[in-house]
Amino acid sequence: MLFFYIIFSHKQFFLYLCAVYINKIALKHKILHRISKMLAFVPDPCMLRIQYRIRTGRWLNLDNPKRFTEKIQWYKCKYRNPLMLQCTDKYLVRDYVREKLGGEEYLNELYQVHATADSIDFDSLPDRFVIKTTDGGNGENVLIVKDKSSLDKQETVRLVNGWRNKKYYIVSREWAYKGAQRSQVIVEKYMEDSSLDNDALLDYKFFCFNGKPYCVQVDSDRFDGHRQNYYDIDWHSLGVHCTFPEGMHQQQKPQNFDEMVRVASLLSEDFPFVRVDLYNIGGKIYFGELTFYPSSGYRNFHPDSFDYQLGSMFQIK
């Protein structure tokens, strides 16, 4: 007990030691998860300061946040909306979308829902499909099957069951995942766009503040030279990039873009901030997911001023 008293009484020293230690060895995901479990007793604000320093190279200001990435950390610590628990669940969010948009029109086809992967009826599935766990995040816990005949079913069941109830909150401290319902397994239709040269769909990610889309991030070539382009709502290029470089060619504005903006507006009106992810295939709009903590708030935008620009739109109390 004396050891912990000394450590916590020298807060900056504690943060520095943790940052140095984790930064050296925690880039490997499994190691990071184990260390995070060991440090689960550390309060969220303290742990987020450590992680923010490691991932961005900056010290986090939680008392008076100005940057978008800082306000995402504040969002984790302070904002508690029960609707978020429903909307981070990949199965329960479908009910939210139905209620907001008045039906199934924008939802991808759902084949099966199970408590565990052992119950998946592979024989009734088409050649292509996607398996997910309902509590996965950051693009993880997703298996894309393009050829059922070559699938090792036993290994697939083992893999998917291993994803369940991983408690990613322990690592990210993202509150909306802390109170998640028990993990389930869903099987959905594999979405593809025949007009594209590869299997990577264009992913339209709307940054929305209090029901008003401010800009859209368009991801392309996800599996081969991943690119991102940022546009305002009038489809003017913002010249911004962060995790991945800006695409060399500007994307064409979808003909039904105004409808996409309307859908994003309706799905975001209950929250100070949420990123609404949509697909547009052959002129048909599909819901992807609602993301409250993009990249867990650890992005470095280029130019850096865009972090403040988004932050000015994010009104917190």
Anisotropy-based shape: globular
The averaged pLDDT comes out at: 86
Number of helices: 12
Q: What strand line-up does the widest sheet have?
A: 7-6-5-8-9
Q: SS-based structural class?
A: alpha+beta
What radius of gyration results from the CA coordinates?
20 Å
Describe the structure.
The chain is an alpha+beta fold and 317 residues long. It has helices at residues 2-9, 11-25, 29-38, 44-56, 68-78, 83-87, 93-101, 153-163, 169-172, 175-178, 257-268, 305-313; strands at 110-114, 129-133, 142-145, 185-189, 203-209, 212-220, 227-232, 274-281, 284-291. The chain has a five-stranded antiparallel beta sheet with strand order 7-6-5-8-9. Strands 1-4-2-3 form a four-stranded antiparallel beta sheet, with helices on one face. Helix 2 (11-25) packs across helix 4 (44-56), helix 4 runs antiparallel to helix 5 (68-78) and helix 5 crosses helix 12. 28% of the residues are buried.
